[in-house]
Write a structure and sequence with these properties.
Number of helices: 8
Largest sheet: 8 strands, mixed
Helix content: 25-40%
């Protein structure tokens, strides 16, 4: 039997466990504030990065993010968009439809979106800081794509791994994904055992004592 792919293994995790694994390994990746913008499903994939910024002239330009969507040639991709401007949208329903047609798995924005119902109506996963009705047109432009971006304090590179769910968004570098997944799987097994223990009547103070988590730390160091 073939081994599950890294994305298949990542799909089995949640943001809490992944964040714990990063903590134990002293790695960045967990963010705060990038949450689902509608009641969308968990999002797992590999980053296609986009950097936005304020428009500073009156010259016409191609609509932001549209060239990146047009170039997508993989069904593993998540659009990871940095540089959102307070109060101004950098995503909407036309982009959501175009991305879905290209097989994009979803979008994470360090910024705001409009037309939330348009993404929800087609089941397109969308995570970000919030919503607005104010258009990006003549206010925000795309500065680059495929380059490292800063997402809520975390540097994300093209091809890094993304997991977003109801508790938030986590990024894992491609270079560290196997180590993070190995540890996350061990943490998940131990935590499932802890839940079973308290449901069987064991003292939660005993089950959640620091030494139980120290054991995970010791395993991580092996």
């Amino acid at each position: 039997m073939s081994q599950p792919s890294l994305l298949a293994r990542l799909q089995q995790q949640d943001s809490n466990t992944l964040s714990d694994a990063l903590d134990f390994l002293n790695l960045p990746g967990a963010t705060y504030g990038l949450r689902p913008l509608w009641d969308c499903p968990k999002l797992v994939g590999r980053a296609s990065t986009v950097q936005l910024g304020r428009k500073t002239d009156a010259a016409p330009t191609v609509h932001l993010i549209s060239p990146v969507i047009a170039a997508i040639d993989s069904t593993e991709r998540v659009l990871v968009i940095a540089g959102g401007v307070d109060g101004i949208s950098c995503w909407g329903d036309i982009l959501a439809n175009a991305a879905q047609v290209k097989g994009v798995r979803g979008t994470v924005i360090d910024g705001l979106s409009r037309d939330i119902d348009g993404s929800a109506d087609i089941g397109y996963p969308l995570y970000g800081r919030g919503v607005t009705m104010i258009s990006a047109r003549n206010r925000v432009i795309q500065l680059s794509s495929g380059q490292p971006v800063n997402m809520a304090g975390v540097t994300v590179e093209e091809g890094d791994y993304v997991l977003a769910d109801r508790c938030g968004t986590v990024f894992v570098s491609a270079a560290q994904i196997e180590a993070v997944l190995d540890l996350a799987e061990r943490i998940a097994r131990r935590q499932h055992g802890m839940v079973a223990a308290v449901r069987s009547g064991r003292s939660v103070a005993e089950v959640m004592h620091d030494r139980q988590f120290d054991a995970i730390q010791q395993e991580a160091g092996k």
